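Supplementary Methods. Inverse-folding protocol.

Structures were first reduced to a discrete structure-token string of length 259. This string, shown here, constituted the complete conditioning input.
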């Protein structure tokens, strides 16, 4: 005999398993098409420009103000301990390990992930994806793989640039507001940073790029129900990518820096 009060719980649980299964299957199919021919180099380059070049302004602005705020907040804390010399260390470590890749990933999710979901979702509801199949063009090859490849390649580049801009923002505040010596600040920054800090940040960036592109394309590909469905797919893409980025950040940090 069924218990009515448990039926909604069961439906929710089974629905969650079904959604996870669809995402896993979509991910595996996408990865397979990313590494098997035919490839579309022109589409990959186009997506690299869309994801990378046109995202530079927002990533750069985010990084420079993050570096500035880091210096101000860190100075308030370390000045109580007479440890102002540690400010370059805190800034460069925070940016390269955490804030650079995480903030870049979240900004890319809002800018690029939503655009991917809206574009592919519109193609889905207007039956353009079905038209691709009638023309013997695999939608995964033509729509999904170029975006995944471009995101994985370009987000580490954006994060590397963001790290430099963020450190420069911290440098400006330290030198012109807090009267730090320019040469000593730069020397401490170079001396404190290690290869593992940069590598971990770039690995995170590649993983976050994959997540952003995957969630954008998946939600757009699964879109149904006209304009309302496209709007829901866009929202789900941004929210899903943001949550997965934070979860992946914890996992990757544990892999690199667990003791």
């Amino acid at each position: 005999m069924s218990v009515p009060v448990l039926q909604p719980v069961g439906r929710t649980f089974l629905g969650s398993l079904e959604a996870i299964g669809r995402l896993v299957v979509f991910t595996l199919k996408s990865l397979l098409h990313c590494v098997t021919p035919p490839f579309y180099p022109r589409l990959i380059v186009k997506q690299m420009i869309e994801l990378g070049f046109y995202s530079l302004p927002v990533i750069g602005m985010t990084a420079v103000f993050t570096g500035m705020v880091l210096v101000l907040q860190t100075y308030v804390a370390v000045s109580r301990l007479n440890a102002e010399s540690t400010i370059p260390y805190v800034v460069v470590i925070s940016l390269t390990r955490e804030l650079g890749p995480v903030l870049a990933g979240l900004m890319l999710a809002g800018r690029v992930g939503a655009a991917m979901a809206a574009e592919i979702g519109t193609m889905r509801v207007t039956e353009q994806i079905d038209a691709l199949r009638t023309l013997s063009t695999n939608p995964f090859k033509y729509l999904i793989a170029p975006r995944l490849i471009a995101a994985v390649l370009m987000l580490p580049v954006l994060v590397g640039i963001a790290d430099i801009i963020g450190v420069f923002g911290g440098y400006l505040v330290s030198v012109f507001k807090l009267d730090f010596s320019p040469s000593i600040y730069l020397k401490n920054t170079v001396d404190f940073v290690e290869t593992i800090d940069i590598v971990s940040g770039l690995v995170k960036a590649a993983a976050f790029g994959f997540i952003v592109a995957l969630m954008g394309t998946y939600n757009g590909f699964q879109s149904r129900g006209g304009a309302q469905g496209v709007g829901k797919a866009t929202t789900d893409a941004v929210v899903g990518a943001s949550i997965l980025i934070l979860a992946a950040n914890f996992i990757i940090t544990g892999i690199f820096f667990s003791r």
